[in-house]
Amino acid sequence: MKFTISPAPHIKSKETTSKIMLSVFLALIPSGLWGVYKFGDHSGYVILTSVLSCVFFEYVSQKFIFKTKVKITDGSAALTGLLMAYCLPPDIALWQVCIGSFFAIFIAKECFGGVGFNIFNPALIGRAVLLSSFPTVMTKWQIDGVTSATPLGILKEKLAQQLPSYADLFVGNIPGSIGEVSKILLLLGAIFLFYRRIISWHIPITFILTVAVLSVLFRQDPVFQVISGGIILGAFFMATDYVTSPLFSKGKIIFGFGCGLLTVLIRNLGSYPEGVCYSILIMNILVPLIDRFTKPRVFGTWE
Amino acid sequence: MNSFVGGVHPPQSKYTSQIETEEIPLPKKAVIPLAQHTGSPSKSIVKIGDLVKTGQLIAEATGFISANLHSPVSGKVSDISSRIHPCGYNFDSIIIDSDDKDETVEFKKNNPEKLFPNEIVEIIKNAGIVGLGGAAFPTHVKLSPPKEKKIDSVILNGCECEPYLTCDHRVMLEETEKVVGGLKLIMKVLDVKNGFIAIEDSKEDAIERFRVQSSEFREKLKIVKLKTKYPQGAEKQLIKAVLKREVPSGKLPMDVGCVVQNIQTAKAIYEAVYEGKPLYERVITVAGSVKRPGNLKVRIGTSLSEIIDYCGGFVEDLPGQKVIAGGPMMGITQFNLDVPVVKGFSGLVILAQKESKFYEPSNCIRCGKCIDVCPMGLVPTMISRLIEKERYEEVKSYSPLDCMECGCCAYECPAKIHLVQNIKLAKTLIQQKKI
Q1: Where are the alpha helices (DSSP H) in B72-193?
Q2: What domain count does chain B have?
Q3: Sheet containing B258-262: which strands, arranged edge to edge?
Q4: What is the pLDDT of residue B348?
Q5: CATH of the domain at B143
Q6: Residue A169 in domain
Q7: Domain residues for B402?
Q8: How many angstroms separate the Cα of A66 from the Cα of each of A74, A122, B80, B363, B371?
Q9: Smaller CB count within 10 Å for chain B: N or C?
Q10: Over the stretch B87-122, which tens digit does the pLDDT of each residue have?
């Protein structure tokens, strides 16, 4: 009889890349449904367009441009699409979404070698390109069909408008990007990811704590700062992106702190009301450097 | 509960833990490789045609780190030639045709009360005892530490953290007295006051058995319950869990004043000293996809095909199954069932065809799970990536030589990357001074 020969180990865990991607995808769905409910059907089409166009660009670039194995079934492109849609305004045109997808998947990911090799978070690159290309559309917000400013916008522009209550912020009765408004549903998703051991506390908790503490220094309400804008979505779902965050625990804490610091600086000293997207992208650049200086201690060695 | 940092929780699959040890019939032909221990191979002292008895010395140790070999059966030496060994290579072996009478040489019983430590070590050396956990390091060497190394603790390793394997568990339950007796002998040889028996908390029955057995001995002997986790039984991790001492990189347990021995080794030491019986049989687990899995007492040199036949054969008659010498985390797959059982052979695990599939690796997504689970604090993904890119100079800064190849990283990797193979390649290249 013929036997299989292979090196050890001969058993493997059931975890796979696509299962991880699927879990993150599932964890994000409730918050997206809330966005569609709050901002209307068009935001649903934005999400669909974003996911499908990302998968499409991934397929085309793998099949025809780089001629590598087509790996769209690993779910990473679909997840990028979902995440990008979640940080877009509800009224963006669908063709604009496709431009974002192109930059997210083709430029930021496939041109760098595909999954595992991208330097920047693809979804955030997509958003950043759209923000600089279509600044008006990207900063026009509405809720229940009525145009209005985001909580951070009210604060930044010093508008004579009542700030929403904590309850409204938590539940998501505020204008904002499609998937970022319902903090409670995002947190539920994050708890699921903790339970699945897909994310660890290091990045999100240091990120959020840094924002809270530094906001106090800028005489801002820390709770308001944390639960308005994209911090919850960014800290739990974007900054924790495996590929573009540090490998080691110590590095993750530095990364989380850097994201928090930059967010607060942009919000308070920059001209944008929100800074999560850029702060994560800037910290992405520093990841190789952080990794280099935070290697874990090898068993049986002391320095 | 005591433990170490890192590790994984593969399914235990220890279905044979409640099956009593059976002695299997004598092999018709015993194949005894001259190299079945760490160190230099033994030298045959028999010729083709010689008649030998069970327990008779047939090959002598060559040098200090080497071990004697004894005939596992009585019969005639039919050949001395190169035969396949479980590690996959051919080695010179003595082949003995059994006459099925199992006539033994006369075993010289000893009273250890009257023996000096060096005499006990001599008996252990003559009996050809090596570490029975898998590495097969000659036991007399471990029991003769250089004078400047002060040993204060002995740990018996009853973790048996590999999935499927239950032979040490059965020996702990069935031969409790001999195991404790062996430990006492080791403690006497090393003049040590602290004896520990380390057992994972999944083997409560064994812990209970030792508690009863060692009651008169309590102040010197401690039963340590450890968390059930792979690789709890790895020597350095075990010492860390039991004594909170960390063996420095590149050093040995004796450098932190500690000696670790396997359960079956302790039993073999007891038998060698009290009964005068050399090491020519051991208990192995046969598990997985065989009709009648169990724990078997087998003679060294018994072929795998005879063992599998005794266990009723394979469950499925399909090609592509895996026959693993050892456990599924670190064992070696076999391509030939003529392979004999050697001293360091702890189990035979058969994985059915659909459990033996090949995992196509995909890109690393930098999830860091391999880093979290590495018991040595290494960065498997970086070593692997640098080796694949042939960036050899940088590989060294990630200390691949500290890897013990436990397989946790490759077990956990969601991208199914062949991490252990790449790290092994790094180790080989460094050891051969090619990088």
Answers
A1: 117-126, 139-142, 167-174, 176-190
A2: 2
A3: B221-226, B194-200, B153-158, B258-262
A4: 95
A5: 3.40.50.11540
A6: yes
A7: 369-431
A8: 17, 18, 58, 15, 31
A9: N
A10: 999 999 999 999 999 999 999 998 988 999 999 999
What ipTM describes this predicted complex? 0.91
The answer to whether the CB atoms of B366 and A76 lie below 8 A apart is no
**Residue A198 lies inside a defined structural domain of this protein:** yes
Instruction: Assign 3-class secondary structure to chain A.
Output: CCECCCCCCCCCCCCCHHHHHHHHHHHHHHHHHHHHHHHCHHHHHHHHHHHHHHHHHHHHHHHHHCCCCCCHHHCHHHHHHHHHHHCCCCCCCHHHHHHHHHHHHHHCCHHHCCCCCCCCCHHHHHHHHHHHHCHHHHCCCEECCEECCCHHHHHHHCCCCCCCCHHHHHHCCCCCCCCCCCHHHHHHHHHHHHHCCCCCCHHHHHHHHHHHHHHHHCCCCHHHHHHCCCHHHHHHHHCCCCCCCCCCHHHHHHHHHHHHHHHHHHHHHCCCCCCHHHHHHHHHHHHHHHHHHCCCCCCCCCC
Give the pTM: 0.92
Which of these three, B275, B298, B329, is where a domain ends? Answer: B275
Q: Provide the phi-psi class of B256: left if phi over 0, else alpha when psi is between -120 and 50, else beta.
A: alpha
Residues B252, B144 share a domain:
yes
Question: Domain containing A253 — which CATH number?
Answer: 1.10.3430
Report yes or no: B23 and B296 within 8 Å, Cβ to Cβ: yes
- Mean pLDDT on B156-171: 95
Q: Who among B250, B371, B407 is closest to A9 (CB)? A: B407
For residue A281 the two structure tokens come to 């992208």
Contact B163, B411 (CB under 8 A): no
| Residue contact A4–B333, C-beta within 8 A | yes
**Which amino acid makes up residue A173?**
N
pLDDT at B411 over 80: yes
Judged by CB atoms within 8 Å, which residues 374-433 of B form the interface with A? 375-379, 381-382, 398-399, 402, 405, 407, 410-416, 418, 420-421, 424
Q: Tell me the residue range of the domain where A137 lies.
A: 17-293
pLDDT > 80? residue B258: yes
pLDDT category at A89 given cuts 50, 70, 90 is very high
Residue A227 falls inside a structural domain: yes
Residues in chain B: 435
